[in-house]
Amino acid sequence: MINNSNSDRNILGVENIGILICKMSIPIMFSMMVMALYNVVDSIFISHYSAKYLASLSIVFPLQMGIIAVCSGTAIGINSLTSRYLGAGNTEKANKVAITGMWLEIISSLVFILFGIFFSGVFANAFSSDPEIINGTKAYLSICLIISTPLMFSSVIERLMQAEGDSIHPMIVQIVSALINIVLDPVFIFGIGPFPEMGVAGAALATVLGQIAGCILGYLFYRRINILSARIHNLIKFKPEKQTIKEIYKVALPSIVLQGLTSISTLFMNIIVVAFSEIAVAVFGLYFKVQSFLYMPLFGLNSGVIPIVGYNYGARNKDRVVKTVRIAMAIGCSVMLLGTLLFQFFPNLILLPFKTTEEMNKIAYVAFRIISIGFIFSAIAIVINGFFMGIGAGVSAMSVNLARQLILLVPLAFFLSKTALGISGVWVAFPISEVLSTILAYALFIKERNKIDNKNFW
Asked: What per-residue confidence (pLDDT) applies to 427?
């Protein structure tokens, strides 16, 4: 039964768009920054303990990103569909999506648990022959995978709260989880007080304990929600519907691909860059770490846009959908303009926290200045992708993601690196791919908008 009264009391349908975008996006941006920080802190503590265990973390990192891609991407699909049903006033279907989402995340975690039990050793041996690195990789990976359910479950809980316009409590959950991890890292790694010295296994234990705490806190917050009544006990007799799962993954799959592409494209780019020098690879690694902090506000903005667009699309409120995209685009471009200016005129400040050589600085200054030319274009493409995910246009979102990070970037980098440009050709590939993928994103945006208008949806 559809109850349009929900539209009258949910802030996604009535709040000023500019203020709403800030309310929804800023906490998510902050959460992402905190999450990035504690990943860095993990590496800092381990680097002081053992250089070989630091190598173990590097080996595990792509698989960690894969876990996060699956749980976060699935949660985004749940967020989008739940928002649309709430916008349409259909609380019953929104609850069905919520329960289905919990079920999907738990099933996904079982796959990772089995991998952790049976294949952690195989994975570790595939990337190293050093016994210490292998043992460190196996220890860290098995703990994170076997206790992955809290991470998966908390992801869907946080997104369900965001679907109702609550971005503050998910932010609190992320911060608490990260702080517990940061505090426990040195305690378990080095063995402080009554705790034994655990090394890399201690880092993994600190991570999963933080996730468990975040999961429990998130569910306690979630239980206070009035509209959505889906709870853990509903999973016992629940039978997932094929159509609901299909609708969730229409948006979830592109998001999973987007996050998974980061690891894949980085691997290919490293292969291209290493042909020049190991120093060039180091510079590319530095750039990747720095730009992740710059892009997090943009991805936070994207995450804030999805429920707003989804809710108002479900409520058939065209003006609010269009206004959301326009304001988000202005904010995104402003953020990336500041980033462009920083990379163009102050690359030395960016490199200040790192211990670099004169040769690295020389390569980095050129790379940062060339790559940053495409920052503003990437803002446009990423905001448009938020629109696609909000309305459930998963294929369009995935097409833009594939173009940005793989189909355009990697071949361009390879071919331009073979020209007289040399290593600079690799950097030039970034702004060219951003411009071309933004053109594609805008063309698909017009197509999706016309499709909606032709159906007289509004």
From this structure: 95
Q: Decide: 406 and 261 in contact? Cβ < 8 Å.
A: yes
Q: What angle do CA 163, 155, 122 make, to 5 degrees?
A: 155
Q: Residue 51 contacts by C-beta under 8 Å, 6 or more apart in sequence?
A: none
Residue 311 CB-half CA count within 13 A? 31
Domain spans in the chain, listed from the N-terminal domain onward: 5-240, 273-454
Cα 442 to Cα 448: distance, rounded to the nearest angstrom: 10
What span, in angstroms and rounded, lies between the C-alpha atoms of 455 and 458? 8
Spans in the chain with pLDDT lower than 70: 1-10, 31-32, 34-40, 47, 51, 54-55, 58, 62, 127-128, 225-235, 258, 278, 282, 285, 289, 353-356, 457-458
- Tokens describing residue 436: 């071309």
Cβ neighbours for 300, distance < 8 A, ≥ 6 positions apart = 25, 26, 28, 29, 30, 31, 32
How many Cα neighbours within 13 Å face the side chain of 289?
17
pLDDT of the residue at 163: 74
Query: At CA 426, angle to CA 66 and CA 403, rounded to 5?
Result: 50
Tally of CB atoms within 10 A around 371:
21
Tokens of 396: 């369009």
Per-residue model confidence (pLDDT) at position 7: 45
| 186, 171 contact by CB (below 8 A) | no
pLDDT in tens, 98-142: 888 888 888 888 888 998 898 888 888 876 677 888 888 899 889
Cα distance between residue 136 and residue 128, in whole Å: 11
Task: Return d(Cα 430, Cα 190) in angstroms, integer.
Answer: 41
Distance between CA 316 and CA 318 in Å, rounded? 6
195 Ramachandran zone, left/alpha/beta (phi>0; psi -120 to 50): beta
How far does CA 211 lie from the centroid of its chain? 16
Please tell me the distance from the alpha carbon of residue 178 to that of residue 24, in angstroms, as a whole number: 20
